[in-house]
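Recall the central idea of this unit: under ordinary conditions, the amino acid sequence of a chain determines the structure it adopts. In this exercise we apply that idea directly, starting from the sequence alone.
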Amino acid sequence: MFGTKEKQSTKAGVAGQKGSLVSQESFQELFEKSLKTLKEGDVVTGEISEIRPKEVLVDIHFKSEGVVSLDEFSNPESLKVGDKVDVMIETLEDDDGMVVLSKRKADRAKCWDQIIANSKEGSVVEGRIFKKVRGGFMVDIGMEAFLPASLVALKPTRNLDQFLGQTYKFKIATINQKRKNIVLSRKDFLYAERGEQRAKFLSTLSEGQVVKGKVKNITDFGAFIDLGGVDGLLHITDISWGRISHPSEVLQMGQELDLTIIGFDKDNQRISLGLKQLKDNPWEKIDDKYQVGTRIKGKVVNLVPYGAFIELETGIEGLIHISELSWTKRINHPSEILKVGDEVEAMILSVDKENRKIALGLKQTEENPWVKVEEKYQIGSTVEGQVRNITDYGLFVELEEGIDGLVHVSDLSWVKKVNPVEEFQKGQTIKAQVLTVDANAKRIALGVKQLEEDPWSNLIQDIPEGSAVEAIVTRLANFGVFVNLPNGLEGLLHVSEIDDAKAQELEKHFKAGDAIRATILKIDQEARRIALTQKSGGSSSSEDN
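Accordingly, the structure predicted from this sequence is:
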């Protein structure tokens, strides 16, 4: 290989042999001029003059060849002498008098120029992630570009090593021309790609179309389905014709499904999916399968305060209203006799196909005990039962399980007004007479006083109007004093029939249990009322005086 001086003399000789018109002096000027035009950082085209084990010599028409490391060539086996190659001048002369060249830097410089000429921020480039650095990666796109770790994927990932050595497409995020730096984003490219795929996919969709998808996420209200880069929502109400409490009862993560598009909003790019729609709606043939008056078995699937829901088959439920649970038992909540999971037999009471409602009855599977009540409890007959409940207006007497009769307060005594709460106790056994029976309304009226003859007509003969009597105060009212007469009848001493001084302060002058004297003022036989007076000769007892 020629040295520097030898190369000069050889070139001059060759030129002389060719009969060059350029003089030695003018050639020297040109040579010196060429030395001035080349500088470090320039990219020039040279010719391979020699291939060595670790380096390649390149003639760049300078005073000496340049040297390039062999590992800068992507395919060194294919190199041959005479090949043209672009290189960058790193050092014009090293310690050995050689020019140090770089093919890699020349390629990157050319790539930079191409990027600046042909690309801008947002453009798509392809490159290989070749090195992991602080905060991200270095990517070879013909030159080195930086890829932040936060922009390598759509979602944050801990295993960053999986991206090393991989070739991807990226979007140019930023270009810094002063520093010749490029920042890439694979995340932006993936978002754009997904958007294109979504738009392309959505353009092919229509309601009623059957598509394939994979369960991506399960929530309380449904599941998100991946349709291939595009998500759709499968609402819980569209998963099954039957009742489900949570989508996870039917679906699993990653499960592949065939689904129907039941809703499609192109403007908002929202897709509603249906799974149950791929099966026949069980309500379509409901009239043929469930006839009113027939018995059917089902399973209790839900209890609410107003009744129990019974699953007759998948997608078909009926309601047993609380009023249809028992003929006789007083049920406050269905849970008193049923629990979820119970198998029950019920009767179909009504079918409403349009509103998808089936009314069921549990009590209808048993004989209605009220049907025979009129036969069993004849009007005028005497019955015996226990006091089940006591109210201000009377007593409820249990004649048999689920069959009660009411003794109204007015039917407790012929001769006085009785306070049921004070004179009776729950569980007490009493006798009464059947007054009326209404099986349809499930009512039986009883009377206690009717067990005895009405003494009123005989009793009032002992106390004619105008007669003086001694009576016992039973209670006070704001309009007068109620008293018990010697014959057991009750009378009223109205405030207007009491001396004015006493009438203004009844509680001071009259107390329950006091004995008073008064005169029978009037007897109303029809209304069964006796009025008394202390005026016109009526007087108090000695104790009151």
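Residues 1-24, 538-545 have pLDDT under 50 and may be disordered.
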